[in-house]
Design brief:
The complex is a heterodimer of chains A (377) and B (83). Helix content of chain A is 25%, strand content 22%. Chain A has 377 residues and is of the alpha/beta class. Chain A has two domains: 3-240, NAD(P)-binding Rossmann-like Domain (Rossmann fold), CATH 3.40.50.720; 268-376, no CATH class. Chain A has a nine-stranded mixed β-sheet with strand order 8-7-6-5-4-1-2-3-15, sandwiched between helices. Chain B is built from one helix and four strands, in the order E-E-H-E-E. Chain B has a four-stranded mixed β-sheet, with no helix packed on it. Chain B is globular and about 40 Å long. The chains are: A alpha/beta (377), B alpha+beta (83). Chains A and B meet through helix 4, strand 5, strand 6, helix 8 and strand 8 of A and strand 4 of B.
Amino acid sequence: MAMSSLLFSRERLAGYDPSLLRGATVLLVGAGALGNNVALALSLAGVGELLVVDPDVFEVSNATRSPFFVAGAAKAAAVASAFVRTSLLPTASASFAGSVIESLGDAPFLQADVVISAVDQQTIRAYISEQASMTGTPLVEGGFDGHRLSVSVFSNSVPSESPCWRCGFDEVEDSGARGLCTLYAKSVEAQGAVPATQTVAQIAGGLVAEAAIAALHGVLPLDGRRLFLNVRSGRSTVVTLPPNPDCPGRHELAEPAVQLETGADEPVADLLDELRACGYQGEVLLPEPVVLTMPCRECGAPVTVNTRRSFLRQAPKCAPDCNSSTHAPPIVVSTLPIDAPAPDVHARTLGLGPSSRFQLSDGQWLAVAHKDDFVHI
Amino acid sequence: MELTFTSPTDSKTLTAEVDPSMTAKTVLAELIGADFLPGQTAYSAYTLVPTSGRAMLSTQTLSSAGVKNGEVIEVVQATRGAA
């Protein structure tokens, strides 16, 4: 028998469609231990394209749980390269972005057939959940804690009628770590969390990958449910997740948007110029409040910050050696009048990444131009 | 009514008398106060799961969740890591 017909022969018997997987694109957010093991399983299963997002670099403590570990390397790049190298498909491809997912706009979610959340921080899980829900893309979410793991699936086919990840969390804690797993790990371990092991990471990775592969086939047995497994005792539970009528997350598909020509890395002034030229009026509703200035944490003098509120970690200093005292209140904006002067920043700084949809005050939806932020292997 | 709660991390159980009008949030606070569960943060969010298998929302009462006297309620805990 020819090699090509033997390859994936077992997978065919198990119900996989290798040609379907070969044509699929999976967005993997998080290239830590879970992401490593997910990528390994997807690569061997014959998934055609992987988009990997992670701003972090490998540290020694990651080595025992990350099969694609390269000392000091950027995680996203290393995992993307390893995905292609491991794959048995001559056409396998991967791309990576070494930045936080929140800065990449809607584009990756529009491109993917399935989204995998393999991140630890809750704020990022919430963001991924919202984006997947808004774009109607199936989401597989996983995590672990010592010898326990969990996997949940959200089809997002009818977000208004289904639970999302956010439904189960009244509060989402911001660790302040902003994508850096070492800082996050320290804060969580300080609260009594037990670090995970390779066996847990591998089992969780396999379960997440299997759920993603099933979703690519249109089969979602865990849709709206969460599997909990204690890999040491074998105890498992599958919990049905109810939709939360008071969920702070988004439960509706994004409405069709008019595509603009201005891109994420162009000045906001250009964006407003284009809106005026097209006859739009009113205000741009920003995806989240943007802090334009904040008081210096020493003297209180206003310091230009121009940062999304969720990206701010601490108050700035007006100068490294500042140590004196007045006080100016922060300037935070949630809207941008189309007819007013624009702040001197790029659209991405205001939360408008590639293909990001935004709404005008009159209810119209527009979208920033597409841009490929990924580096292709 | 009397319910038995199972721990998310080991084989411990706790049987307690509770009021059917108590919300999941209140019950969990009592379990933490009784030292059956470590203190909860958003990181370590707990959820109550009756025998129906359907997770309770934090503001949902035991009675509205259909919980019956003598039932075993599983406490599950959000996982915190992926790295």
